[in-house]
Amino acid sequence: MESIVFGIVWIVLSAIVEWLARIPISHDPLYYTASNIGLMVEHAFDFILVVLIPIFVFVVLGFVWTMVRFRVKKGEKPQLPKHWARSNRWFVGVWVIGSVVVNLLFVLHPTTTATEHFFALEQPSAPQNRHAVVVDVTARQWEWIFSYPQYHLTQTLNANGQDMLELPVNRTVKLVLRSYDPFHTYDQYADVIHSFWVPSWGIKEDVIPGETRILYIKPTKITSFAQNPMSRVQCAEVCGPGHPWMEAPLNVVSASAFQHWIAQQQALQSSSS
Q1: What is the 3 state secondary structure string of 72-92?
Q2: 80-133 pLDDT per residue, tens
Q3: Picking from 122-126, 138-142, 210-214, which range would have the lowest pLDDT averaged per residue?
Q4: Where are the beta strands (DSSP E) in 95-236?
Q5: Collapsing DSSP states into helix, strand and coil, what is residue 162?
Q6: For a Cys-Cys bond, which of 118, 131, 139, 235 suits 246, CB 3.0-4.6 Å?
Q7: pTM score
């Protein structure tokens, strides 16, 4: 009878917590997502959260139930109950098999399914990547440099002279990541490892001297660094004393605004050359 009551309480509490969890999931207050990859990460987190809630409630309820049900006052010498859970093969079997099933579930989804989806997005021959905006991203101590070879722009700056990345919304971007100093001639392996990180995109990619890495991504939300600080390019790999300040603002704009910005950058580059 006690097991039945415990089961009913567990089911009711799990349903209540699941309902409460839907509120932050539907309003996204815990994260700011602005890319297709970021949405994949967000959905994976939400799925794991929903599945783990009944398990979390079961464990916590078990602790609380035990403390209340089997509490002993000072001086009492109660008769210890039989540890049926240790000898009950059905209970042990269900617990072990259930644990294996949950772990296998997380391996298959979202881990394997999300990885397969991510690899499909990274194929250069994929339809969505054929007309991508190409941006060469160069990391050096301690600066991000952005160039747009399709538009003959070697370095894009904002009004304050700071390197900046501006992209059109809902269009695939091909980021070509390298680590070296283009302003000084030296061994290409002399720089250090950096890490390209945009918090609102939900991605990090190491930028290694002597290697060229490609990252395809599609911004899904018009945003800017001024609107949300998570829209920035930040180095996430300790690369020296200037590491904390190695960042650049990111602006995602409409297609027409992007073309206008490109024209402004081309005019600025022509006047300075």
Answers
A1: CCCCCCCCCCCCHHHHCHHHH
A2: 666 655 666 777 788 889 889 988 988 888 888 888 887 887 888 878 788 899
A3: 122-126
A4: 133-140, 143-147, 165-168, 173-179, 194-198, 203-207, 213-217, 223-224, 232-235
A5: coil
A6: 235
A7: 0.79
